[in-house]
Amino acid sequence: MVTTRLMKYFREYYYKSPLGIPDMLFQREIGFIPFNGTMTRHRKFNGQAEIEDFVRRSVPRHLYYSSSYYRFPDQHKMLEKEWLGAELIFDLDADHIEGADKMTYMEILAEVKKHTLRLLEMLMDDFGFGNKNIKLYFSGGRGYHVHVESDRIYTMDSDSRREIGDYIRIEGLNMEDLKMLDDSYFEFGILKKFNIYISNFYINLDENYIKNVFGKAWWNYINYLEKFYNGEKIIDFLRNDKGNKFKLLIKQNKSNEKASIDYDRIMLEKILEDFKKSALAEIDEPVTTDIHRLIRFPYSLHGKTGLMVKPIAIDDLKSFTPLDEAIPDIFLDREAKINLKIDKFSIKMNKENYNIFRGENSVPLYVAIFTNAINVAEFI
After folding, report:
1. Confidence (pLDDT) at 238
2. Tell me: the pLDDT tens digits for 12-37?
3. 274 belongs to the catalytic site
4. Are strands 62-66 and 294-296 parallel, antiparallel or unpaired?
5. What residues have CB less than 8 Å from 287, skipping those under 6 apart?
6. How does 353-369 read in b/e, with b if 16+ C-beta sit within 10 Å?
7. Measuring CA to CA, which residue among 82, 60, 86, 57 is closest to residue 71?
8. pLDDT under 70 in the chain at which residues?
9. Which of 38, 56, 180, 309 satisfies CB 3.0 to 4.6 Å to 296 for a cystine?
């Protein structure tokens, strides 16, 4: 009954709503998961009318296309497809967010958005991609997909894409390696941000914070920083916009022969740890490295939520609210009856809060579809 009713509403959606067709569709592999069955892939469609006719007849629960371009996308063996290149794909989801298992669905969406914003900042500031190179989608589930389209990346192999993924996740950044780098490395990219982070840390130092987190001895260390360095107080030097703060602290610690504790090293390790947590973007790295990846089709429905895979303008991401803006219009202003199978379910959708209790409930159709898709309710 659940599957039949969901499939009915999915079919209605596909008959009334066009898909977002990626470029060079005829060179993309198409895959789908039906409501009853397993993944089918290695399909090819030549244009919008052809694939939309197929979707309306078959009504997939999940619809995908390849990030890769192939000469023969419908061949079943990868070598016979003749790979021509691939977009660079990033999948941001709750699976890699620390503590996500204790978050509500709405909290997960907010947290994943933070990581998506960090990713976009790195792609644009550190890698030099522009708005025209980046396509952003709400996945329809618990996160976002980011596609990079550029001649600079199409023919990159998996190892090169892995290096990009490692940079995005700030993998391998450690104190020993940082000490070996000269000042020029701290003038751009993630190390420039780390340098700025060090300055901000010292700018915002508070006596109570230092004593509570590190102990009273650390406040003596901060007072020690008031010693002069090249005619300027070190603490003032750290608070301005010039110079390599990391190297200064390492150098200053070496000159402090009377110090019984390696203050700067311990402090810098703490700053580095906090910096990584605040600056990295948790991506699903296997998705990024996979040059044959299938990704969700724009404007298709996510089979586990009933929400749209929705394109988003980069500038709109901060204000984007998935549980308002990814609801298909045809599911608005309609109601349906459901039987909730758990004691209570709460969700905020379409700017309204819903608290639903076990048993029969009359709710907006989009709430009914969502609760059925996540398998906490069934249609009556």
Report:
1. 63
2. 999 999 999 999 999 999 999 999 99
3. no
4. antiparallel
5. 89, 90, 91, 293, 295
6. ebebeeeebebbbbbbb
7. 82
8. 1-2, 203, 205-207, 209-211, 213-243, 248-264
9. 309
Task: Give CA–CA dist 298/93, Å, rounded.
Answer: 17
CA 52/CA 19 separation, integer angstroms: 7
Neighbours of 290 (CB within 10 A): 18
Contact 300, 140 (CB under 8 A): yes
Q: Judge contact between 284 and 353, C-beta under 8 A.
A: no
Q: Which of 93, 125, 315, 329 is catalytic?
A: 93
Out of 23, 53, 91, 236, which one is annotated catalytic? 91
> Which DSSP helix (H) or strand (E) runs through 234?
helix 234-238
Which of 67, 68, 70 has its CA nearest to residue 145? 67
pLDDT of residue 220: 63
Instruction: Indicate the pairing of strand 310-312 with strand 232-233.
Output: unpaired
Maximum Cα–Cα distance across the chain: 79
Q: Is residue 43 exposed (0-12), middle (13-18) or buried (19+ Cβ within 10 Å)?
A: middle
Which residues have a Cβ under 8 Å from the Cβ of 228 and sit 6 or more positions away?
234
Asked if 93 is an active-site residue, the reply is: yes
Q: Is 349 helix (H, G, I), strand (E, B) or coil?
A: strand
The one catalytic residue among 95, 125, 241, 284: 284
Are the CB atoms for 303 and 225 separated by under 8 Å? Answer: no
365-373 and 2-16 helices, crossing angle to 10°: 120
What is the three-class DSSP state of 320?
A: coil
Contacts of 204 (CB under 8 A, 6+ apart): none
Q: Return the pLDDT at 1.
A: 47
- For residue 157, what is the enclosing H or E element? none
Residue 244, pLDDT score:
72
Instruction: Answer yes or no: 91 catalytic.
Output: yes
